[in-house]
Specification:
The longest helix is centred in the middle third of the chain and has 14 residues. The chain contains six helices and seven strands, in the order ααβαβαββαβαββ. It has one domain: 3-Layer(aba) Sandwich (Rossmann fold), CATH 3.40.50.150. By secondary structure, the protein is of the alpha/beta class. It starts with a helix and ends in a 13-residue tail after the last strand. The radius of gyration is 17 Å and the shape is globular. It has a seven-stranded mixed beta sheet. The chain binds S-adenosylmethionine. S-adenosylmethionine (SAM) binds next to helix 3.
Length: 210
């Protein structure tokens, strides 16, 4: 799959444009100022750069070095800084209670990888940290407006509800909406959206902890 994404990102043009995802823009209004944010499957940088310009400290992970080079180019052109890490999400260590927010915007991976990633995401968020997801829903298979063509890569509302049932749910919705993002996300689309807050209380690693 890496070769697919390298190929997609190999032209000068930004495949999904340089404007941030509009759901993310709305969701990000809830974030504390100067949050440490991890973006999974960031691609060419449109979302990471937006968040960095809002004053956040953003780390962008993607398997595509070509995509992340374009992230760096976009950040430079817009006068901000994004940390980029080339890694497959199968290997990437998210860390423990490290992030104020983790975002996943159209980062579609197989269900077996999602099952492994969800607990890592939970563990990686600080107490009170935000998880923000927009993904194509199973209903999108019937459409030609974007997203993977395999049912296993799509994300349902039920899946997110089940995996993050203990989160404080700020927003959880499956909906049809028009998306215009560059060359490959075009038109009426079925998506699943999630904004949740990690309830895990902070672990004190000093003893005694009074
Ligand atoms: C549809 S693009 C979305 C890019 C970006 N989030 C955006 O909204 O513009 C999906 C991205 O997920 C990345 N991705 C998919 N599977 C991955 C994996 N296993 N490890 C790292 N990145 C992955 C791809 O390389 C690609 O950049």
């Amino acid at each position: 799959m890496k070769s697919f994404w390298d190929e997609r990102y190999s032209s000068e043009e930004y495949a999904y444009g340089v404007q941030p995802n509009d759901f993310l823009v709305e969701a990000a209004k809830r974030l504390p100022t100067v949050s440490q944010i991890l973006s999974l499957g960031e691609g060419e940088g449109r979302n990471a750069v937006y968040l960095a310009k809002c004053g956040h400290k953003v780390t962008a992970v993607d398997q595509s070095d070509i995509g992340l080079l374009k992230t760096q180019k976009l950040a430079l052109s817009q006068g901000c800084t994004v940390e980029t890490l080339v890694s497959d999400l199968r290997e990437y260590e998210i860390g423990k209670q490290k992030w104020n927010a983790i975002i996943s915007i159209f980062c579609h991976v197989p269900s077996e990888l999602r099952r492994v990633l969800y607990p890592k995401i939970r563990a990686g968020l600080k107490a009170g940290g935000f998880l923000i997801i927009e993904a194509y829903a199973p209903e999108q298979l019937m459409r030609t407006s974007g997203g993977p063509k395999e049912a296993d890569m799509l994300v349902s509302l039920d899946e997110l509800q089940a995996h993050f049932s203990d989160f404080e749910i700020v927003h959880l919705q499956a909906l049809s909406r028009v998306i215009q993002e560059g060359l490959f996300h075009k038109g009426l689309s079925d998506v699943t959206q999630f904004i949740g807050i990690n309830p895990t209380s902070a672990v004190c690693d000093r003893a005694p902890c009074l």
